[in-house]
Amino acid sequence: MHIHENRPGILNSINQVFTENNINVVGQYLRTSGNVGYVVIDVLMQTPNQTDEALQKLKDLPGTIRARLLF
Where is the ACT domain (predicted)? Predict the structure, then answer.
């Protein structure tokens, strides 16, 4: 789950993390309210270490409020 500032381009930045790490997005649920948004993303990963790398990159994105891994 990624909680972020609701601004243009943030969803593109989030999806770019998955593209750059060769992670397949199989579903997304986006919701916004005022200045804040969140997206729940269902992904398929090839290797376990992709999880840590992708999560750190999501946390480092400008506009990120919080990023969490849910199982």
Answer: 1-71
Q: Rounded to whole angstroms, how far apart are CA atoms 45 and 64?
A: 22
In a domain, 36, yes or no: yes
Q: Global pTM? A: 0.90
Q: How far is CA 69 from CA 2, 3, 7, 35, in A?
A: 9, 12, 22, 22
Collapsing DSSP states into helix, strand and coil, what is residue 61?
coil
In this prediction, residues 33-62 reach a mean pLDDT of 92
pLDDT at 49 over 90: no
Which CATH number fits the domain that encloses residue 8? 3.30.70.260
